[in-house]
Design brief:
It is built from nine helices and 24 strands. It is α+β, with helices and mostly antiparallel strands and 513 residues long. It is an enzyme of class 3 (hydrolase).
Amino acid sequence: MEQFPHICSAPIKYKYANDSDADYKKTGKSSLKFQLINQREDFSFALFSGGLSDPKLVAVSNVISFANPKAPLYPRLSQGKSWNEMTVTWTSGYNVIEAVPFVEWGMKGESQSRSPAGTLTFHENDMCAPPARTVGWRDPGFIHTSFLKDLWPSSVYTYKLGHKLVDGSYVWSKSYSFKSSPYPGQDSLQRVVIFGDMGKAERDGSNEYSNYQPGSLNTTDQLIKDLKNIDIVFHIGDITYANGYISQWDQFTSQVERIASTVPYMIASGNHERDAPNSGSFYDGNDSGGECGVIAETMFYVPAENRAKFWYSTDYGMFHFCIADSEHDWREGSEQYKFIEKCLASADRRKQPWLIFVAHRVLGYSSSYWKDASFGEPMGRESLQGLWQKYKVDIAFFGHIHNYERTCPVYQGQCMHVGKSHYSGTVNGTIHVVVGGGGSHLSAFGPTQTSWSLYKDSDFGFVKLTAYNHSSLLFEYKKSSDGNVYDSFTISRDYRDVLACVHDGCEPTTLGS
């Protein structure tokens, strides 16, 4: 009972009886519509009087049942640990003692093979604090992950989820398809979408716990509308805002199913996934509602060495991504700092010229931090900007602040390139982008006018990167309301420009010849 409205896992969501008929209190008659998704249990509707402040149960409806409440649902794709591996994760009600999970898959139009899946779940005592381990607890079912390996580059595959029951019969999902990743360095059209802080919302207009992500459905719908022109998605923290009410993870995976079942849906850890008191998170609040990272790392696969430490690298064609975990220590000397430097240093810039850094909290620059004059998380830039400059990171993306902002290529608070719409030549300074307007309530900008900020927008939106080849990149900021472009720039350069010496970004030399 940490946050208004004070409801438990049941009811999962609610409406007011007089929403559809203002005369309800006089006539006692009203009609409401709810959208139900399969959550492995039967449903009932309950009527309460007294509102949220003094609820009294008046009546309970008959039971509503799904044909198969245990059915495999909500597949979400992710890059594996190698470029030619795709992982498929899904939710079902089947434990391994009841049914063996697998994926049937193959190239479109060709013979199909089967790959086994591992099965995980979590329990109430795995949660770190209320409400996740008290009133917010709900059984999550079982989470299955299968690894589809040795994929041919840029090829279309079909797949479906399966469970073989102990009696020899099968339960199947519907069929899905995806396009495999290009070979690292492959010269082809490659399109990446990045945003943070989206959350979920109810399409039926009902209310729920943590109901403050009004832009969520618009962002989801714009991505679905443009899905044929998207190759991979990065949702960089604050995934569901379930905040310890576990039923909402089903709701979120249902909401993004059309996206996550078609292209890799890569996530980063945010404060609303990880932070819980006395749980080892760098920040000691309870923004996760007691989830302490357990649910996010189980519901979504990421190619991390240790999924409890949510940092990892992944390649997509001409892109190399280094995803940090801002909820664990990133300062110099820490385990994560060593990972970040290793990840940045490992980029082969001839093959993968576009080097991207990602974290949830703003470890770089944001005008919305004006009150403490840090313009970013304290200790963020002082620990990391030397690495960004040394390894010539093109763009650093952040969420957490619920708006959009883009900087010039900046280093130590100074713009290193002039211009707003096109950059060419040497890589000097990193462009910092806050893209936390995925759906949650919007953040304001401060009154301070900073020299490094080029574009601000307190609205819902997302970024799309389009790599045309090794020398040309297009950046676009699109609003979720209409999908139109409101900010953009291009980068054009050659490999020698990446190699060129810049301030604090020079390779050692010798006078020997």
